[in-house]
Design goal:
Helix content is 7%, strand content 50%. It is mostly beta strands and 329 residues long. Strands 2, 4, 5, 8, 9 and 10 form a six-stranded mixed β-sheet that branches. A five-stranded mixed β-sheet has the order 12-19-18-14-15, with no helix packed on it. It is rod-shaped.
Amino acid sequence: NNPPVSRITSEGGNVSGIITIEATVTDAYLNMTAVYLVVNGDDDNSTMMDPVDSEGHYQLVVDTRDWMDGNYELKVWAEDEWGMYARSPAMYINVDNYAPVIEFVSGGGVRWGNYQVRATVYDPQLNKSCVQLKINNGDPLKMREGDEYWYYNIKTTDYPDGPMEFMVMACDVKGNMNPGEMMMITVSNRADLEIVSVQWVSQEVELGEKARVKVTVKNNGHTTVKGYLVTATSGGKTLATMTEATGILPNKEHSYTLEWKTKSLGDQIVRLEVDPGQVVDESDETNNAYQQQTITVSEEGSSVPGMGAVLALAAAVSASLALMDRRRR
C-alpha cells in the first residue's frame, strides 16, 4: 500500500564533465523499469536509471558538458507494479563546465601617464586568486577586485613608447582555465605645454619703446622636450619669439622674456602662444595659447610712467632737496 522509497546516495556540490548519479530504491513490488532521474522537476524529460543489482541499487551516467553552468535539483522518481509512485528527497549539484568569461572594459588607443587596465570576469565558481594580468611578456600580476570590474593600475612612464600588450587570465574552482583575453594600447609619454602665467613690465608703452612681457610655460606631460617656440603675435604678424634650447623637464616651468619695439600708436591685441607650429607632439594641443592681451602704445611723453620711473624721479627730487638744504647752511 506504500509507494517506493528512494534516495540519491551520490554526493552533491560542484561537478563538471561526465558524472555518475547513484541511488537506492526500496519496494517489494518495484517496477524495475520505472526508476527515473528527474532534473529541475522536468518529468517529461526524465531519464531512466539502470539497475546495478537486484537489491535496489541504481545508477545513471550523466554528461553535463552540454549543460549550462549553474545549480540543478536532482530527484529519483520510482513506481511499483501497482502504479504507486514517489520522488526521493532532492540532491543539488552545481555544474561548472566553462572557464571564466573575460571582457575588457578599459579603452585602447594611444595612452600616457596613469592608466588602469579594467576587465569584467564572470564565473559562478570563480577562483578569485586566479585572476591575473600579464603585461607584454612579463610575469603574471594579481589583479584587484572592484565593485564592477577587476583592475590593475600602471604608469606608462615605466614602459617604453610603443605597443603594450595586456592579457587577463582567470580560472574557476574546478580548474577550468581561460588562458587569456588580450588587448593592446600604444604608449606615448608625450609632453603637455601650457602658458601658466604672464607678467608685463607695462601694458602702456610710448611709441618707439620696447614692450616687454615675461611668459612662464609649464610642462604638464611626461617627457622632456625642447626646440619649441614661445611667440608674441598681433594681427597675424610675429612681434617676438624665443626658442627653448635646453629642454623642459616633466612638471617643470621655464620663463621667457619677449620684447619688441613698438611701431604704431593705439591699442594692440597681443596673442601669446607656446609651440604654435606644433613641433612638439603633445597630449593636449588645446591649451597652448594664453588669453589675448591688450597693450596701449601712446605718443612720446604721454604715457603714464612706470614704477621704475616714479622711483627714479622721487630719488632725484630727494637728492635735489638735500643739496639745497646744504647750500642754505
